[in-house]
Description:
Helices cover about 85% and strands about 0% of the residues of chain A. By secondary structure, chain A is mostly helical.
Amino acid sequence: MNLLGQGLCLLGAVVLLIAAWGVVRLPDALSRQHAATKAGTLALFAFVLGAGLLMPELAWLGRLALLLMVLLLTLPLASHALARAALRWGKEEGGKRS
Amino acid sequence: MMLLYGCVVLAGLAALLGFYRLLRGPTPADRVVALDLLFAVAVLLGIAAALITGRTAFLDVALGLALVGFVGTLAWARWIDQRAAREKEPS
């Protein structure tokens, strides 16, 4: 239980670092946003799960479940709005990839 | 416990990369993407702080950061949308 929790925490941190690396390295706003949101959601999911396994008490599990629910509900919405904005901005720039 | 500090260091590196894109990013959308990433790093650091100190209050901090990040990203996306529409208007 403890080992699995620690492994999930480490996985979350590593995946978040990979997401940040993608945000720096990928060529345009849409692909950067794809890296940040998809990998970022997976990282937070794994880290919250790991934290829940490390601290199996009601006070922790309730808050972590609420946090996980909020994250899973809001991250796709924010990502969608941001992707639409980036797409429209790109069209205004004459479709050139920057 | 050592492993949690390692997670904090990794998240700090991710925050540095995010700040690079925030300062450098050529379009406003790039900067908002970097801001989104920085909020994700902040939520992760909040959970790590809760695990290290053993206080659940930091989990509430992480929850608040997640909500503020959501509203902030939506607001910036709307702003980019409106600015793109306004720049189309004159031409």
